[in-house]
Write a sequence for this structure.
């Protein structure tokens, strides 16, 4: 169990690192992890929407589809929160790059 948790942590850290460098695939994979609960991550549709939104902004058509699908399961308030988190992540990433 400890090894699987370490593997999940490593996977998430590497995806976050790649996402910070603009990898649409890493952003999409984070969305998948949060929408399905894969990799030891709890299902969190707000986080999933955030990552799918960011991947879509980076050109992922697959992320656009997934974002639309999970939006059907979310309230307007949850979607607004996800969008707020996406904007904050973008601003933080831009500041780190500068």
């Amino acid at each position: 169990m400890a090894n699987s948790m370490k593997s999940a942590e490593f996977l998430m850290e590497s995806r976050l690192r790649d996402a910070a460098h603009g990898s649409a695939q890493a952003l999409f994979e984070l969305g998948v992890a949060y929408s399905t609960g894969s990799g030891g991550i709890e299902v969190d549709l707000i986080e999933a929407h955030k990552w799918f939104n960011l991947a879509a902004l980076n050109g992922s058509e697959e992320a656009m589809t997934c974002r639309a699908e999970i939006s059907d399961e979310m309230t307007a308030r949850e979607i607004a929160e996800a969008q707020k988190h996406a904007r904050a992540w973008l601003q933080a990433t831009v500041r780190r790059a500068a």
Notes: The two ends are 39 Å apart (CA to CA). The mean pLDDT is 89.
